[in-house]
Specification:
The protein is 37% helix and 17% strand. It is an alpha/beta fold. Helix 3 links the parallel strand 3 and strand 4. It is globular.
């Protein structure tokens, strides 16, 4: 399993221009992030007819050169965001081999039916929204609770809110909906930044909790603890049932005697000592107590 360290940013849009990617990654390092995910989008609603049952999802972009360049500074994961409108995406995901190559799978519903499916049956890790159209899709209380029980997380992107005031209103509306319907459980903050000037430090991002209706602890967890839980949930989905070996560093002591048995033996020994009150001495020899002098005969 890959190791991760805080802080996290799980949405860095992929760019073919390596200079743009390097600028973003360098800014992330300087602001204190340790684990990031490079995101690529795929619109399942624009799939070609006749491709049902075949591989329709793309392979992850080649970012090995960036991983080598930032291997001592950042843990770089890969994520895919699937835009879809109906439940037919479930079959395509179940037969896809390329999806298994991604660390994270996010669902971006485009209709109310897709939103309900994303909360209740989507085989992914994260639910996200397009800020431009997200204000028309508001999750209901039941679907939110089901998503939390399934271990799904909801993403709030702050970079679009910085770039456009209209997007800011939409994201605040979505965040307030999370607050009223599900008490803002399982929320993570991501940037979605296409330019390094849109990035903010993790502590500044955590302070956005007050704008989005989260508590102070929820804001801190949205860039740290919840992201770690999301990563572990995604790894368990990818690996499935596995065998784990645990190796101890120190000596292992096994005992067949419980505390109750020890206390019972102590009580019996005290009773025996009271009965042989005339004994002069006890000798400990080879771990066994022996009475040296016999009882006086009355």
């Amino acid at each position: 399993m890959e190791q991760t360290k805080p802080f996290y940013d799980f949405c860095i849009p992929y760019s073919k221009d390596d200079s743009v990617m390097r600028a973003l990654l360098n800014e992330l390092v300087e602001t204190g992030y340790k684990t990031v995910a490079i995101d690529q989008s795929f619109d399942h609603s624009k799939k070609e007819a006749g491709k049902r049952g075949s591989e329709m999802f793309p392979e992850p972009h080649k970012v090995e050169h960036l991983r080598r360049e930032f291997q001592d500074k950042l843990r770089i994961l890969q994520r895919i965001t699937i835009l879809y409108v109906d439940v037919n995406v479930a079959h395509a995901m179940s037969v896809s081999q390329n999806l298994r190559k991604f660390n994270l799978i996010a669902g971006q519903p485009k209709t109310d039916a897709a939103l309900t499916h994303c909360c209740t049956a989507f085989n992914g890790d994260l639910i996200t929204f397009d800020p431009a159209a997200g204000s028309r899709l508001l999750v209901n209380r039941k679907a939110y609770q089901v998503a939390v029980r399934r271990g799904m997380f909801f993403e709030i992107k702050y970079a679009p809110s910085i770039a456009d005031s209209n997007y800011r209103k939409d994201m605040i509306k979505i965040a307030q909906n999370y607050c009223t319907k599900g008490k803002s459980k399982n929320i993570i903050f991501s940037s979605g930044a296409a330019h390094e000037f849109q990035l903010r430090g993790p502590y500044d991002v955590a302070n956005l909790a007050f704008i989005f209706g989260l508590s102070e602890d929820q804001g801190k967890n949205a860039v740290d603890r919840h992201c770690r839980q999301l990563f572990l949930k995604a790894e368990s989905r990818r690996l499935g049932k596995t065998i784990m070996f645990v190796k101890g560093n120190g000596p292992i002591v096994f005992s067949d005697t419980s505390e109750d048995e020890l206390s019972t033996e102590d009580d019996e020994m005290r009773g025996l000592e009271s009965q042989i009150g005339e004994a002069d001495a006890l000798e400990v020899k080879d771990g066994t107590e022996h009475v040296i002098k016999r009882l006086k005969v009355a």
